[in-house]
Amino acid sequence: MTAVSFDELVVAEPLWNRERRIGVGLAVAGVAAAVGFGALATGEPARFTLTEDPAGGSVSIDGMFGAVLFGLLAAGAGAVLIVRAARRWFAWLLGAGIVCVLLSFLCWQISSAPAGLNFMPLVDVLRGTFLAALPLIFGALAGVLCERSGVVNVAIEGQLLTGAFAGALVGSITASAWVGLVGGIAGGVLISAMLAWFSIRYLVDQVVLGIVLNFFAVGLTGFIYAQLMRPNAERYNKTPGFPVWELPLLSKIPVLGPAVFTGTLFLFLGLILVVVINVALFRTRWGLRTRSVGEHPAAADTVGIKVLRTRYVNVLLAGAVAGIGGAYFTLDLVSQFSQDMVGGKGFIALAALIFGRWNPIGALFAALFFGFADKLATYLSSISSPIPSDFLAMLPYVATILAVAGLVGRVRAPAADGKPYVKG
Amino acid sequence: MNVLYGMLQPDEGEILVGDTPIKIKGPSDAIAAGIGMVHQHFMLVPVFTVAENIMLGAERVKGGFLDRREARREVIDVSQRYGLSVDPDAMVEDLPVGIQQRVEIVKALIREVDLLILDEPTAVLTPQETEDLLRVMRSLRDSGKSLVFITHKLKEVKAIADRITVIRRGRTVGTASPDTSEEELAALMVGRSVILAVDKQPRERGAPVLDVSGLAVDDDRGHRVVDGVDLTVHGGEVLGIAGVQGNGQTELVEAIMGLRPTLAGTVTLDGRDLRGRSTKDILATGVGYVPEDRSADGLVKEFTIGENLVLDLYDRPPFGSRWAMDLDAISKSAKERIAQFDVRTSSEHAPSSSLSGGNQQKVIVAREMSRPLKLFVASQPTRGVDVGSIEFIHGRIMHERDIGTAVLLVSSELDEVMALADRIAVMYRGRIIAVVPPDTPREDIGLLMAGVVGAEGRP
Amino acid sequence: MNDSPPNPATTTEAPTTAPPADKEGEPRSLGRLFLHNLWTANTVTVTFLAVVLAMVIGGILIVVASEDLHPLYGYFFSRPTDALTASWDKVSEAYLNLFRGSILDVAAIEGWINGTGRWHLAFFPIAETLNYATPLVFTGLCVALAFRGGLFNIGAQGQAVMGMVLAGLAGFALPLPPGLHLLVALLAGAVGGLVWGFIPGFLKARTGAHEVITTIMLNYVAALFLNWLLLQNGVKDPARLDPISKVVHSSAQLPRLLGSDLRVTLGIVLAVLAAWGAAWMLKRSTFGFELRAVGANPDAARTAGMSVGRTTVVVMALAGALAGLGGSTIVLGAQANALTGPAAGTIGFDGIMVALLGRAKPWGVVGAALLFGALRAGGNRMQSYSGIPLELVTVLQALIVLFVAAPALVKAIFRLRAARAARLETSVTKGW
Lengths: 424, 459, 432
Known about the structure:
The complex is a heterotrimer of chains A (about 425), B (about 450) and C (about 425). By secondary structure, chain A is mainly α. Chain A is about 65% helix and about 5% strand. With about 450 residues, chain B is an alpha/beta fold. In chain B, about 35% of the residues lie in helices and about 20% in strands. In chain B, the strands form six sheets. Chain B has a six-stranded mixed β-sheet, with helices on both faces. Chain B is globular. Chains in contact: A-B, A-C, B-C.
């Protein structure tokens, strides 16, 4: 008796798979950019300054030439994708293509800017990107902690808001930024404690719960703001800030230095947390257990891991991290709390979480992407771009939609995410 | 067993280990007492590697970080010691079922258990893999371990056990030795003689109804799981597809029903091409479908029985038109079907979640048989169903066959296939490797299911 | 391979015990039976107690955030009655005004009876409640229907805004005879919302993009779009400097039902009709059947031949249209007669809570919308007369929904008996 061997059946691959379609989209966008932006661009140079000094070192390119060049490069990337010449480089080609379309667009915008403003301060933009991304980073990290253990966290917005509020309130009353930070953490933990308690103990649906908690946070902070802070801002709503630190050698690196290695506590804390959480999640015992609880809680239970307690701890930690993110608003960005100051960043953080595939490093890059969209809108508005400011402000939101709909493909959450664990 | 392993708490009674009563409050207590368990539904995290799964809960830690190297070493050590080779770096979700089970066993052994409980371990194994498992169990026994082997397959019990305990409805009803006959064991199990025989009249088969040729289908992960299948089902016959789960049967049936894209080959019903047509169309042209997983795909738990009975008929007369439904007609028909198919329930308005597994399955069968059929496709129709309902469903399948419907039956229960089918097609690794008559010896079919084709390899 | 254990979130509660008979062995009277069943965890009791609980917490918040009460608590232990009576007075006055503003103002009724006041003042609270409830019924239905279809439509706000925008544009830009004008404006509003609901539905069906994120993003896009629109020529009111659109013609406005002094309009009638339509659709129509099947078990629905993608798109479009109508009732109704940035308030978000409170059932939504409308109307008065900020109403609303979503908690707090076969939670426990 012998085992039979079988040949492979040869079957035609579908003509229009995802790569091809994205390639076509990119090629079309590239050509449109080359033609459209090229036509609109002026012959003025588009300058990208490398230092904080507007007249200092810069890279310059002719506006029209640049717009056409980058458009064609993007179209080229799209063409490569269409003929599927380099399948392994899909992500890189797509990224490069998007960057080229963006550069083409910028060449138009910058060269058309009024005189004296026709440059893009790279340092400022990079720094602005990081700062705009900071609350998103904290929010997405909170999401990672929470969801990796299997609890969906839609309440990031509420946690950020309460963190901001508590940070402002406590910081004001105690006139200390550090104590304010602790207050902010407590604020975030308050909301996440409710999330944990109602979803783990009472099995309330986690998405519903998250939404309701967001309303609760808005109402609670708004109410106390109106009652205490607005009438008496001196006492309750005037927060001290944190000093700006410059890391010794690193802050002297051109372009990167002033942007990434110069900042307040929050910037460094955020970046450090990304690394710490990443290492903890993938290389420590706590991380392995957390992930097992999020993927297959029954399996974790059978080896003696306490599923519910792990989830409680993770959700509370998530609240603490989000609380820090919230405190950033009121203890660093501005020095007072105002209603609706979070403005949807909690939801963009959620999108960053998904875009980053529930991974701290991925979330960081996703957050930077959205932060860049935000900063770009501000910058374009400052050079009196012909595009109306309201439409520019839509940029981060539209980018989010495109990200979750188009570019990400189907992503996989932790397998037990959102499902309450019941023994037996 | 869940009590022994600490997953549930006992209401009465006690557990003694070496004459000392102990309290087991959780799996860690059980493991500390030297009890390990290999679960029926594997307790493995699919996205972790073998080593990560094995060390979960008993991780080796060095300097605060996971010591993966040490974990790998231990896995290789234990697996070699007991002859259970596993690759510590493989991702569990990529492994075949038999290997996953080995991982479960190594996971228990590495914690130095004295007593190993195996809960229905052979449910998903080929006869060959089952032999391997029994060999491993013998070797574990010989090295001094105690094993509790839970199964409903009498042949296995007789092949491996030193002592047999029969449990029915939560009570121990008897002990036996491996020499006890199968009939006596079966009688102990169900309390009466059970003969799994079906009244199958010989019948002339009619014209071909379903014709599948060169079919190729991928699974969700892009692997080719149906790799050139040819089969024909004639009116008035039951074609049974035998094979261990996971050889492409699920995807084959889904492709025929339009639930999964076909990549190559043809599927025709009475000569008309089924490929590319919507499931709704296919059902409407006279196909009945009983899906493999009734709670996921067959019924909407929250709906009433009446609503479930019209799940694919609600927008056709007499139950409804394009826009609105006739609730009275639905209710009346539901009452009739419930009576006709002996569904045990208080009312057609009860939610279908209130039904037992067997009754739920009868609802699905009733639904699919309430319209004239050319083809009836049933996938694992009696899985998890009580004996009485099994008999009823088998009777209805025979009835369809007798009135001329073509029946395609997919089942991993070989006894069922042998009892019902007029022809048996054995599926292995995405292909039909043989089609044999139902009086073929069981061992031969078992070998075919394991991919072994004899010198006379019948087409 | 048995069935998986029932999801506890949808498990029926254990059956209740029968009320004990009297000593003589005779069954108790109807009154006693009613009371016995009242104190069980059925939906009405739970909702009522949730409101009570929310108000208690709200009362605590009022006290905590009242600066004038702080000194009294400073010497709490020496003279507790001062702090306690002052707190009680403040809270009860606030809640009395809540009641007076939403349901009955006894003073106004007395005035009407003895001729010193007009009847309008007596009906003012109810009219206000109905006025605020009107758009909430629409947005509540919007979210509820999407919920039943298995979708979290957080975008009701954006859909309502777009509906409001189109209705407003039709209202001041189209010269049409009365009657027809109103109809066209309402239709335009529905279309606006429909498009804004179609987009996330389509994206979900085609790409799997999760609707929670896409709808929330579209909310912001809609708000920004409105801001931009208000500055455009042709839309903005040339006579004014602030961002406000032209005034909607009276021929497009919803007629007022109780005279021009009271703010209740035909909108509430339309809202109730919409609820009735939604109830009919869910129960009797084929599409309603598909919607419910896809929402409960998309795999079984697909296996039975239904098109999950198509159902998703249609549900979201329909939901969007409803929210659009809700937005229309604002600009064509009594709350505003021109478009402004904040005109739509938070009706979309309130709609989410109304849907949750109403357990995603059409008539439940109507009841919940009335409750929320009452809270809002009363909250206005509470703010003007007692100085309590309106945000307290948001807190109350969120707490009520929270407690209703966790009936086991309410049951534990009040020691309710298990209700007869009560299905308490709307469970959609499926995460992403």
